[in-house]
Structures are given as structure tokens and as C-alpha cells.
Amino acid sequence: MKRICERICLVLCLLCGPAAAQDVPFAEPPYPSENHREPMLLALGDLMGLAQSRHIKLWQAGKANYFQLVTYEAAKLSDSLYRAAMLYTNLPVPLIKAADEALVRITAAADKRNAADFQTAFRDLTNACNACHRAAGLDFVKIKTPTSSPFTNQDFTPPR
Ligand code: HEC
After folding, report:
1. 93 falls in which pLDDT band (50, 70, 90)?
2. CA separation (Å) from 119 to 78, 105, 112?
3. Domain boundaries along the sequence of the chain
4. Residue whose CA lies nearest to ligand 1 atom number 17
């Protein structure tokens, strides 16, 4: 029962938070469902690889003060973590929430166009990634603030 409540709480928290994923106008998911956030079949490690890419893009967008992109990437990363939580029910809810809360603060910083708040929240996000890895016995998967990005095929320059 407690688990069910925690799951419901988590779903509500993630759905209502500002960092919740947004629907794009012309991309319907390929599965017939009322709930567009239903998990697709993906291994946890695959989702984490995606989270890692989005962690870099989020940092790169923040570094460029490209706040519209920050909001978008934060929602995408939130979506990856949400799918991980739905797919792997035994992931510790407080540790997922810690990451999501940091993402909510990142979105709030983007709304205010506040680079300092972005940096603090991004650091907390990275700490939340590592807290869960440590809890999962994966202290050797150490996430850190990126120093460069492999995404040379995407323009991170904000419009003037
Ligand atoms: C709630 C727990 C949790 C949170 C939060 C979390 N992870 Fe993970 N992560 C895991 C677990 C569990 C694995 C091991 C998955 C496996 O090996 O199948 C993992 C594995 C990984 C891996 C190794 C996968 C690979 O392909 O190399 C990377 C990279 C990773 N996480 C990045 C991140 C990033 C970046 C964040 C934060 C934005 C994050 N994770 C947040 C639980 C978490």
C-alpha cells in the first residue's frame, strides 16, 4: 500500500512539476494510450545513457544562457527519469524526487533567466544522479559537470 501511495505521489509530482515533458504538436506516440507518458520498453541502462546525453545538453544550453532550450532539455531529462521510475519500480522514490526537484529549480531559473540559480540547481542535479548511483552500489558511475560537449551538430547559440 505504501509503495502504491509513493508511486502515485511520484507520478503526480512529476506530472505537475514545471519540468514535466511537453507534448509536441505533430508527434503522436506509436502506441494507443490515454497516457502519453506510459513507459516504452527500454533497459534502464539505455535510459540512463539518454539521461547522460541530456545532462550534457542541459549544461550546454545553460552555459550559453539559452533558457528556452534549458526548459526543453530539463523536461526531456525529467521524462527519461520518469520512464526509469515507471519501468523499474524498485528505484528509490526519494532519490528520483531529489533529481526531479533539481530539474524543477532549473526550469524556475530558466523562467527567471537566472544563470547563477541554474548553476546551483545543476550542481544539485548532478549530486542527485550520484546519490542514486551510490545507493544502487554504482559509486563507480560518477557523473560530473561536463567540460565539453560532443553535440557539435546542434546549435546552442540563443537567438538575439
Ligand atoms: C533513482 C536512481 C537514479 C538516478 C536519479 C539516476 N540514475 Fe543513473 N543509474 C541508475 C541505475 C540503477 C543505473 C544502472 C543501470 C544498469 O546498469 O542497468 C544507472 C546507470 C547510469 C549510467 C551508466 C549507463 C551507461 O550506459 O553507461 C549513467 C551514464 C547514468 N546512470 C547517468 C545518470 C545521470 C546523468 C543522472 C542524473 C541526471 C542519473 N543517472 C540519475 C540509477 C539512477
Report:
1. confident
2. 17, 10, 13
3. 2-19+43-135
4. 45
